[in-house]
Amino acid sequence: MNKPIKRLEIIKYAIELEDDGIIHSQLPLLKAEVTDPELAFIVQALEAKNYSDAMRVITEWLQNQRSVVAWSDPQVSASKLELKALEEQLRELIDKRNARIQLLDEFNDLYMTRLGPLMSQILNLRKTLAEAAVRRQEAEARRREADYQRCQKYLSQAVNVLVMLTQRWESMPPHSIQAAEARKHLQQQNDLIASLLAEALELESGLTREDEPTRHARDEARQEYENHQEQQHDAEKRFSFEQKMTEDERTELKRLWRQASKLCHPDLVDNELKNEAHGMMVQLNQARERGDLSAIRSLLTRLQQGLDPMMASDRLNDLQRLRQRIVEVKQHIATLIEELAALEKEETWQLVSTLGDQETYFRQQEKALTELRQTLEQQVSEAEYDEVA
């Protein structure tokens, strides 16, 4: 009953202001809210421009209603209206983001369809090279370890010889020719031991050399290849679904998906309905993935015909909760604005949003990727030859 009261108050003030424009703007809305004979009489009097009778009945009707209708805090109405405006702003931002993401997804799927197999070959070659690098490093580590063990053996033998030479030298007369010759051999053996110790030190530094970066590069190359295979599979599956649809059906699917997502996005609905909204968004996205136009149309109909409102501006009447939700929606708006600004700076978006001739672009990319594949194939061939050698 609050709406007819407020609408009649507006009309009453408009009559006092002698502004029939306001009266005519409110009249159709009032007519849709008629609930009793007095309201029907007021509508008829206003339509007949019998403002005297209309004013009299409006005044009486308002006085009667104020005596029975509970007081309504105008701050609640103001907060609900403010929240409704913010929700609409958030809805438009979400739709703008969804539209851009949709455009990026379509471009990525097209890229995967056109260049995915070539990229798969390139990533597999990079993975092969990374694995070969690890094998080379492991072989080098084994070689160094074997050299170190040989160096240890030679050093041990040299030390034993040094002990023997020392004992022989000590047993000779100090000023004899034999003692001088033995001392010379001792010096040579000491030099050999010093050389072996230096070699051992160099080999030790090689044994403790960090090999984690090479292994990490190999693991990254493997993961990148596996991720690409999964993405290509998904893109090909979506492309297969799209090929079964006409161009009009594809356009309709995108339009209905965006329309439905604006009605049930978790960031838009009242907090108590977030889980339900999340479930519906999952269904929408899954239907979009498989090109199920009928499922999206059915979900949109459910949302449009829902008996319970989902927006907080329609559900909340508590001033504190309304103000809290206003703060939350403003935060969502600020975050989305930042996301859109960041998206506009991304290289992929700048390419997609400015790309004119897609066919020329893909031909150029195909040529560049083919040359890269040939280079990698040569590197793999050389790496395999080195391993055999």
Automatic annotation (TrEMBL):
Keywords: Chaperone, Coiled coil. It comes from the Bacteria. Residues 76-149, 319-386 form a coiled coil. Residues 205-242 are annotated as: Disordered. This is DnaJ-domain-containing protein 1. Residues 207-242 have a biased composition (Basic and acidic residues). It comes from Kosakonia oryzendophytica.
